[in-house]
Amino acid sequence: MIESATWSSTVGRHALHSLVKIVVAKGGTLADITVGDAVEYLAALKAANKAANGIARGNTLLYAWLRELGTLPAEAPSSLRCLANTSGQVSMEQLVDRFGVRCSPVRDLLVDYLKERQPGLDYTSLNNLSRHLANNFWGKRYDAVVGPWWPGRGRGRRRHRRADGAPGHR
Asked: For the range 51-56, what are the long-range contacts, defined as Cβ-Cβ under 8 Å and sequence gap of 24 or more?
């Protein structure tokens, strides 16, 4: 049985709120919640960008509680992580888009590069390559280091004038 300390913890409160949201949205009782309802709720969270990788705080506990209550069938996956890991391979666009590259020409270049490399690499290597290029290099380093110094980034090309008023370069 679920201990009261678990319900009152921060993660427990998040799980309880998630259960309430599912019951309100779907109607019925806790016993009526299905695996599909839990998956649909997590997909909605992910679409609303409120949960990293679709699993927010408390939702693994939510699923464990549903299993413990016996509302999920025996053939249901044992955890939300099992559900997340069964999504299969994603497209090259999705591999790049998960890192939020804001510059669309660079995003398109990365996608094209991965598509070009795809025939010669396995999926795990493509996944790692996309992470390295899109997140580690372009996502983090570009925004922190290169971005502020890139000419015209976010404000169009600036024109400089010399002291005499003639066009000049800096």
From this structure: 53/84, 54/84, 55/80, 55/81, 55/84, 56/14, 56/18
Select from 47, 60, 51 the least CA-distant residue to 12: 60
Query: CA–CA separation, 170 vs 159, rounded Å?
Result: 9
Contacts of 117 (CB under 8 A, 6+ apart): 126, 129
> What's the Rg (C-alpha) of the chain?
24
pLDDT tens per residue across span 123-135:
889 988 998 888 8
DSSP string, 79-127: SHHHHHHTS----HHHHHHTTT---HHHHHHHHHHHHHHGGGS-HHHHH
Ranges of beta strands (E only) in the chain are 160-161, 167-168
Instruction: Report the half-sphere exposure of 113 (CA within 13 A, side-chain side).
Output: 15
Q: How far apart are alpha carbons 139 and 125 in whole angstroms?
A: 19
Q: At 24, which helix (H) or strand (E)?
A: helix 10-26
Write out pLDDT tens, residues 103-127: 788 889 999 999 999 999 898 899 8
Say what the pLDDT of residue 115 is: 94
Q: Output the pTM of the full model.
A: 0.46
> What residues pair up with 161 in beta bridges, in sequence order?
167
